[in-house]
Amino acid sequence: MKGTTPADDLACRLLKFEQQLKAYEKLHATELTELWQTLNDCKEAVATIVSSDELAGSGESNDPEEDARSVALDASSDHA
Questions:
Q1: Does residue 77 contact residue 43 with C-beta atoms inside 8 Å?
Q2: Domain locations in the chain?
Q3: CA 50 to CA 62: how far, in whole Å?
Q4: pTM above 0.90?
Q5: pLDDT in 10s for each residue of the chain, 80 residues
Q6: Distance between CA 10 and CA 3 in Å, rounded?
Q7: Which end of the chain has fewer surrounding CB within 10 Å, N or C?
Q8: Which of 73-80's residues contact partners 24+ apart within 8 Å by CB, and which partners?
Q9: End-to-end alpha-carbon separation of the chain, Å?
């Protein structure tokens, strides 16, 4: 049986490393997609709650923090 050369060993290590990188890339792409979906689902839920609160009340907020959150939600929906 013929022994492997240092070049063969290195080529094998590079191939395994490339395969690992591809696996990690796929895994993390899937996780990021799921995280973005969860974030967008939460934004939709908040928007629904805000809409029903506005229908129940006058629709105008006296809370500057609430107004800021509403603006932030509108602005961040452009990233989806």
A1: yes
A2: 29-80
A3: 14
A4: no
A5: 468 899 999 999 999 999 999 999 999 999 999 999 999 999 999 999 999 888 887 555 556 666 666 656 665 665 55
A6: 14
A7: N
A8: 73/43, 73/46, 73/47, 76/43, 77/43, 80/36, 80/40, 80/43
A9: 57
